[in-house]
Amino acid sequence: MQDFQSLGLSKKLLLAVEQEGYTTPTPVQAQAIPPLLDGRDVLGVAQTGTGKTAAFALPVLQIISRSKPQSKRHIRALVLSPTRELAAQIDERFSAYSGHLDIRHKVIFGGVKQNPQVRALQKGIDVLVATPGRLLDLIGQGYIDLGRVEFFVLDEADQMLDMGFIRDIKKVLKLLPRQRQNLLFSATMPKSIAELAASFLHNAVKVDVSPEEITVERIAQKVMFVRKADKRRLIVKIIKQERVNKGIVFTRTKHGANRLVKQLDQSGINAAAIHGNKSQGARTKALANFKTGHTSILVATDIASRGIDVNDITHVFNYDLPNEPESYVHRIGRTARAGKSGIAYGFCDESESGYLIGIQQLIGFEIDVDESHEFHFVGAIPKPGQKPGKMKTGKSGNKPKRPNRNNNKSRSKQSQNKPKSQSQSQGNNNSNRQQSPRRRRNRNRSQGNQN
Ligand code: AMP
Q: How many Å lie between the centroid of ligand 1 and the Cα of residue 37?
């Protein structure tokens, strides 16, 4: 197994890494650091939680500390990030890794006053971490000059595009000097990202630590079939029974997140919500309280959760199953970080079985069903031949047509049906969704594991 010394990092950075308690490079670090130190561009498929921040922050710091600017400090490395939380976390990592170097870095994002950011920029910085909106705003006001950037990092590129930042990215690219090193990280690699990467990376080294591998290998996953109306009681029960001290719960809507926080509160569970409607101050406070253990449950929507990097999350609850299968992988990636293990529960109600099928197709295997709870509901189990995605049940999506309260009877029926119904539906849908070789590989592997 590789160690940090063999990656070519300087003594000062090795010391910082040691002080962080890292002993072994993660796969993305082992693959990305050496080519970056050699001056190559890198295209990485990796998501938050894989150690990708250090994979670019360490080489950036090493490269820019090799030489000192003659005159006043200027921006030599630019890191673009889609969300405020992620930007703040990246900047915090730069603090941790640059403790023994003479490097100044700063994070800027919207939703807060610009004056402190402007003052720091005027004093001179070497590394700028930014969200696109505030970056372009301050460029427009003449506070930022990107004309001498040597290193450009585009982080979470797929989310950037999802959030509609493509035009902003193109504007930023036009302001960068031609001669520079580039890095693009994305959790997924759809065509749009591959095209964007091709437009500005040169002869890039590809690094692939795809999320499916994380899913398959380290995170215990369970699905529970339950009525929508029973989800709240089910989650309270699990949180209490398993004494969850650090758990994250995903809801589909901001309103749903707020409502659940209130309901958990009424059951004596200390919870806070984090989503786009909350002010930056409220989001920062909720995250800080969660990190320190003051709040044991964080209820989040997808957008707000990207970039949440909290160690030791033991439980992830998909209170609402996501309609985008990829989100499932991102969500459960909040646990089992940096080699630790965790458990992810998915609550599947009567309107969500199609989402479960889509998720299982993506990850390449069927998630274990936990039916040993009092709320088990057969009406939520996928039907034989069911297609992935939204159920076509008209307005009755939330209401089961034939509620079957006899769990015992139905359980035996379910166990007979389950493997057939789920795999059958996968077979039926091969024509709808092409499987990548990786997914096929994972499926084979997971099937092998089950034997
Ligand atoms: P990231 O994917 O960059 O958000 O990192 C996820 C978490 O892993 C952060 O809390 C890092 O501090 C931690 N981490 C990064 N690299 C290592 C490593 N080599 N060993 C242990 N933890 C790490």
A: 19
